[in-house]
Amino acid sequence: MDAQITLRVDGEPRSLTVDTRTTLLDALRERLGVTSPKKGCDHGQCGACTVLLDGRRALTCLALAVAHDGAEITTAAGLADGGELHEMQQAFVDHDGFQCGYCTPGQICSAVGMLDEVKAGHPSHVTKYLNGGHMELVDEEIRERMSGNLCRCGAYVNIVAAIREVAAQ
Predict the structure, then answer these.
(1) What's the Cα-to-Cα distance from 30 to each of 64, 109, 150, rounded to whole Å?
(2) Cβ–Cβ contacts within 10 Å for residue 42, how many?
(3) How does pLDDT run across 83-121, given as a tens digit for each residue?
(4) Is the alpha carbon torsion for 6, 82, 59, 137 positive or negative?
(5) pLDDT reading at 130 higher than 70
(6) Nearest to 160 by CA among 144, 15, 152, 129
(7) I want to staple 37 with a disulfide (CB 3.0 to 4.6 A). Which of 49, 73, 114, 120 is the partner?
């Protein structure tokens, strides 16, 4: 069965017809030509397909496209403002937070979403103080919050440094 949906991808409305079993990742990549989110494990375990879905980080390989009709989707490519890189993208460049680059778009989207979660006061498994005050974003906290994003090349030290820099701003 097919369904007509509209997604707002990186600020642009995009309408398409999809089989109701189509994942959001496949709709983005195969139907709309949006290649920033990557197909890694296709089981929600690697984070390569992470985007910001209505402002929150989400794994597109686990989401059905029809369930997100009308949604706002921001990919790593959509974070840039014209020719100006988003601060997280720039930090990844400055800290060499990538090697092959395959996981980088998902890492960047996850990092941006994670910092928004911290600002909103959402604790993680390792958050030390839950008193409603300022959460200290130490390396252990960053690693825990980014644990759903895997990097085969092992650029984790540089990824944490990039996130730490943006968080300090």
Answers:
(1) 14, 20, 23
(2) 14
(3) 899 999 999 999 999 889 999 999 999 999 999 999 988
(4) negative
(5) no
(6) 144
(7) 49
Tell me, what amino acid is at 34?
Answer: V
Q: How confident is the model at residue 126 (pLDDT cuts 50, 70, 90)?
A: confident
Tell me which amino acid residue 154 is: G
Q: What is the pLDDT of residues 12-52, one digit of tens each?
A: 999 999 999 999 999 999 999 999 999 999 999 999 999 99
Pairing of strands 72-74, 50-53: antiparallel
Give the pLDDT of residue 134: 66
3-state SS record for the chain: CEEEEEEEECCEEEEEEEECCCEHHHHHHHHCCCCCCCCCCCCCCCCCCEEEECCEEEEHHHCEHHHHCCCEEECHHHHCECCECCHHHHHHHHCCCCCCCCCHHHHHHHHHHHHHHHHCCCCCCCCCCCCCCCCCCCHHHHHHHCCCCCCCCCCHHHHHHHHHHHHHC
Pairing of strands 2-9, 72-74: parallel
